[in-house]
Amino acid sequence: MQNKLFSRNKTLRGRGRLLVLDRPRVMGILNITPDSFYPGSRVEDERNLIVRAEQMLAEGADFLDIGGYSSRPGAAHVSEEDELKRVLPAIRILARELPHAWLSIDTFRARVAAEAVEAGAALVNDISAGQLDGAMLATVARCQVPYLAMHMRGTPQTMQEQTQYENLVYEIVDYFHRTLAACQQAGICDVLIDPGFGFAKTVNQNYTLLACLERLHVLAVPVAVGLSRKSMVWRTLGTDAAGALNGTTALHMVALQKGADILRVHDVKAAVETVTLFLQVESAAAHTEMM
Fold this sequence. Notes:
CATH superfamily: Dihydropteroate synthase-like
Helix content: 40-55%
């Protein structure tokens, strides 16, 4: 049974394959970085990469998101060449060893996106929604893959200095109205949006955004959320990223109830179990309404 807030059986097309978002999907995070905020997401070598990817797929991941540039607040800058050296070998290996996996490239650089798609990626996940590289939208359109556009202000180095909003949710919806128009004009067929929890937002603003998440469905595109082990979880609970799985799971259920289409996560098994239980509740609720 489908969530009433759930987005409209959207079909994603990339590299000759189709994925129907007829139920919430899970995107597993694979960081090819030495400094991502959660050490458990880092991949050190080829063997570890394949083992982690296979485990995520076995646990039910629908996507594998590969990133080579840490976007945590205040993260060190990484050159384009270094980012390419990190992600391209990983994508080639995964495309060869796991040819049926949906691979996503997490980058804000057009060149990295283009070369990653050529190497085997089937989706581009851009934290800047094209704001940090003017060639990104045209590049994604040319690659003919889905595009996940996130809300952010500034850069990973400056974003936490830009948390002033008059009306947070309204401004994010307006931002995506403009982003979607630009994507359409560029010729991108399939666009998803991510409200950007933790990006240019305070802890309280993150919770306001989550409480109002269903308002993003006015945009009529799938909504992805990245809540996994973020500071909005562990700061609130007085723990750290390593101790934030239970809190993450709780917020994932809230996001699903608010109509999230994709959960981007470090812990695939826990997220897939959350989706399973959510769908069971939805099915029971629908059955009760028919009685």
